[in-house]
Each structure stands twice: as C-alpha cells, then as structure tokens.
Amino acid sequence: MLIAKFKKQLHSFQLDVDFQADMGVLGILGPSGCGKSMTLKCIAGIETPDSGYIELDGVVMYDSASNINLTPQNRRVGYLFQHYALFPTMTVEQNLLAGVRPEDFDDPHAEVLKVIQTLNLEGIEKKKPHLISGGQRQRVALGRILLNQPKILMLDEPLSALDQFLKWQVQLELVELFERLQKTVLLVTHNREEIFQLCDTVTVLTDGKNEVKQSVSELFTAPQSLSAGVLAGCRNFSRVEILNLEQGLFNALDWGVNLRSSKLTASSKHCGAYSQSFKVVADLNAETQNILPVTCLHRFGKGVTESLVCSTPGGSSGASILYTELDARDTALPNVNDQFHLAIAPPDLVFFDN
Amino acid sequence: MDWFPLWNSLRIAAISTIVIFFTGIYAAWSIAKLPRVLKGILDVILTLPLVLPPTVVGFFLLKLLGPYSMIGSFILETANTRLVMEWYSAIFASVVVAFPLMYRTARGAFESFDPDLHSAGQTLGMPNWKIFWKIVLPTTRQGILAGTVLAFARALGEYGATSMISGYTPGRTATISTTVYQLWRTGNDAEAYMWVLTNVAISFVVLLTINSLEARQSPKRAIQEMER
C-alpha cells in the first residue's frame, strides 16, 4: 500500500498530489508536462518534494515533518523508465545481474537464468541493449526490476515507445505479469489507451493536482472535469443552460438544441459527448429524444468507422461543430452538405461542473 | 644524441595526465550537477588557463611557488625542496595548462549522459560510487579517453609556462620543446630537426588515436539517436 501526499514547486506550476494505491494497477492520467514523471521520481526518491509524506507498505520513505528522506537505494521501488534506461555498455545478462541486490540471493546467476527463461530472453543474453528489439528491451528492463524484488512497480508510459504491432503483445505480457505479481502497480501516461488496457483505477492529474481516484469505466462515463473529459477521449463539449432539472432538460448552448438526460445536476456547467456516441436517425418518427438537426461538413473514412464533421443549429465553428464516428457499414451515411439528424442516448451524455 | 629531453617530456606529460585525469573528472562530475549560475562562474575559472598566454600562467606559478612565496618558502624550509627550476616544476605548468582540456571534454560527456541511467542504478540499490565507475564512466568512456589524450598531448607540448618555471638545464630540466628552442637559438638546425620530427611523430599518433576513438563512437551514437 502506497500513501503519497506531497507538494513540489516546479518551473511553472506546483505539483500537489494526494493519493493512495493498493494492490492492483493505478493509472495516473495527465497531459504532457503535468508532473506525472516528477510524481514517480519523488516516490522513487530521485527527486525530493518540498513538503509532504510518502509511505510504502508501512515504511515511511519521506516525511518533511520529521525529516525522513530515504535514499532511492533504500526504497525498494521498481521504476520502469520510459526508454527503459538499460545500461548501454552492459549485455542483457549483465543488465539483469545489475538488478540483483547482493544481500537478496546466494546465487545471483541462478536467479538471472530463471528470469531469462521466464521472460523468454534466451539467445540474446550476450547482446548489448542497442542490438535487441524494443519489446525485448522492455522485458529486460522488467526482468531487472523483478530481480530487484521491489515492493511496488512504477511504469512511465510503458507502451508509448513501442510500435503499434508490438503494443498488443507487450500489453498482454504486462497484464499477465501484473496478475502474477499481485503487487501495487503505478502507471503514468498521457495516453488513455494505456489506462483502458492496463489499469484498474485511475486518477487524473492536471496542472499538478490530482483528482479523486475512480474506476477506469467511471472515467469514461463520469469524468470529473473538462480536462479529465478531454483525456478520457471526449471530443464534443457544449455549455449548459438548465431548463428543467427534474426532467433533466437543458439547452446545449453551443449546439443550439434542447437535450435531456437524467445525469444532469444543478451544478452542471458543460456537457460532453464522445464521437462514438452519436447515431444517424433513419426514421424521425421513431426517435423522440435528443435529436440534433445537422449538416455534414466533412466526411472521411478510416476503414470500418467513418468520421463525419457536422455543423449544428448552434453554428459551424468552434464548439458548435460535432465530431462523430459512425459505422461505415451503415448504408444510410450522409454525404458532404447533406442535412440529416443525429441522436444521442441520454445516458451517453456526460456532464461537468466546471 | 642525448635522449633526455624525450624521457623528461614523457614523464612530465604522463604524471600530469594522471593528475589531470582524476581532478578533471572530479571537477567535471561535480560541476555538471551544480545550478546554472554557479556552474557558469566555476566553468570560467577552470577554463581560463586554456585562453591565457602560457607566460601569464608561468608568471602566476612563479609568484605562487617561487622560493620567496609563502608556499615555496614553507616547502623549502620544511622539506628542503625547491618547487621551481627542477624537472618536476614543469608538472605544475602542464597540469594547469592542460587541465581545462580534460575538464571540458569530460563535462561535455557527462552532460550528454542520460540521467535516467543514473536514477535507474539508484532505484536498483547500487551505491553511488558503483554507479559512477560501472555505469557513468563506461558509458562516457570515449569522451573521457579523448579528454585524456588531448590533455596528454597538450602537456607534452607545453613550452611557455614550462620554460619559466623549470628553465632550461640540459640533462636536468630540458624538455623537447625547450630543447628545440635552445637548438634553434644556437643555430644547431640538424639536431633541432630531429626533435621537431620526434614531436610531430608523437602528435601524429595522438591525433590518430583521437580520430579512431571518434570513429568508433559515431555508429553507436547514430543508433541511439535513431531510437529517440
């Protein structure tokens, strides 16, 4: 169990995080430069916070109030760097051996051999890191961390340095590893896909402050702020004017339509809609709720899904434009300049208090 | 022919290089981690001997170590040893003049060193001295080697400060460079050519070494940059 509550003044903002992580994978989702990596570095002891408290499995690692600040060497934190940080002058085998703490094992070489076998690194033991593939590099870096017997695993954008083809394979390997380890895992990323594919819970970090921890599916259905909505992949936003709270009726000012959803609350200021949440209305008589009369501005295909950019009654610029992704197998998809109707199911709308 | 100047030059350069190797690396490693302003100031001070005329360095050294100076008179009284006008006096001159080359090259190598590698070593529990000797130095070895070779070459060719602090006594303090000057002054061109050729040959080998080090470095650099 990790308890992290600390502050650190960075170049242009203050990092102010407060969260706990139990067994399972906690994702920290934030845009580039929001202090994600700095958070991990503070927990690892590579950087020192200005004030606060960090505890791991009952051991206080940092406490500004009582002047405790363990060295990184004594924290037992497994840190997977974004570019893996393999030692370039050492072979794979030597890199793994460098992860063994002499006091942990009587026969380090036997342990290294075990890891080479379980992580499928046979045949590349004598190679230097720049001669092996990206996926292999990550496995070596993970192996080195596992040999180090950390109390917690921290990963910095573990999939971003890999090409699309490798991502799937590495993702499967990671999920399998997390299940086998049964440890606290912290994963920071700006990429929501890594959150959806690898994490159990997530906390959004923007401008140095983290939001309340929530489940990954909640992040999708009920993001806590506009920036969280953007990070979760929400593409369309509109200001909200509440018309009738009991009926969930409101005016989406930017889209120029009245919509309805039971998720509307008295404090809602913006609503949002994912581009995948819309569908084309085939029969206007059959649909009764949440219909938007729109005009198609652009249409471009991406294989199975087709992207349609549409103007709304609210206008044809800025937030008034809707970005939608529709099933290309739907033969009724409109063309550019066609006027048609889109519908969004009330539960698919998300609301923001800011 | 008397080979003393070659032997003397080589031992002065070798001892100076050993001193510079450790002090240069230590200074570079300490200063690379400092905040920018402090780094800038120390950097200027340590690089100054590179741009100052060697005679100015020699002047300072004589004032600092001469028999009437505080340090010089103290050593003379307690150890009965002169710090100037001996063969080893030239070591002071070579160290001061050649130090910036080692320091700057090593600092450049350390600054291009990926700090994540250092952090990785720390989180894996490696003691800091081990990280330095097993990870930092091997990873930056080309830069360190280039700096060492350059410092050696500069120490070997030192003339200005050396002639002031060691003087020219044949068979006692003469180096290749001071010998060439002396031979030219006395019109002994034939022997001067001998020493000039010797010096050119040594410098040639040194530069060849640096080039081969750089050539070995580049393919690896290219691969690393491709990954980024």
**Known CATH architecture of the largest domain in chain A:** 3-Layer(aba) Sandwich
CATH class of chain B: Mainly Alpha
Number of strands of chain A: 22
Question: If you consult CATH, what is the topology of the largest domain in chain A?
Answer: Rossmann fold
CATH superfamily of chain B: MetI-like
Can you name the CATH architecture of chain B? Orthogonal Bundle
CATH homolog superfamily of the largest domain in chain A: P-loop containing nucleotide triphosphate hydrolases
Which helices and strands occur, and which strands form pairs?
The complex is a heterodimer of chains A (354) and B (228).
Chain A: E1 2-9, E2 14-21, E3 24-29, H1 36-44, E4 51-56, E5 59-63, E6 68-69, E7 77-80, H2 92-98, H3 108-118, H4 134-147, E8 152-156, H5 164-181, E9 184-189, H6 192-198, E10 201-206, E11 209-210, E12 214-215, H7 216-221, H8 226-232, E13 236-244, E14 249-252, E15 257-260, E16 270-273, E17 278-280, E18 291-302, E19 305-311, E20 322-327, E21 339-344, E22 350-352
Parallel strand pairs in A: 3-9, 3-10, 7-8, 8-9
Antiparallel strand pairs in A: 1-2, 1-4, 4-5, 5-6, 10-11, 10-12, 13-14, 13-16, 14-15, 16-22, 17-21, 18-19, 18-21, 19-20
Helix pairs in contact in A: 2-4, 3-4
Chain B: H1 4-32, H2 36-51, H3 54-65, H4 70-79, H5 89-111, H6 115-123, H7 128-139, H8 141-157, H9 160-165, H10 176-185, H11 189-227
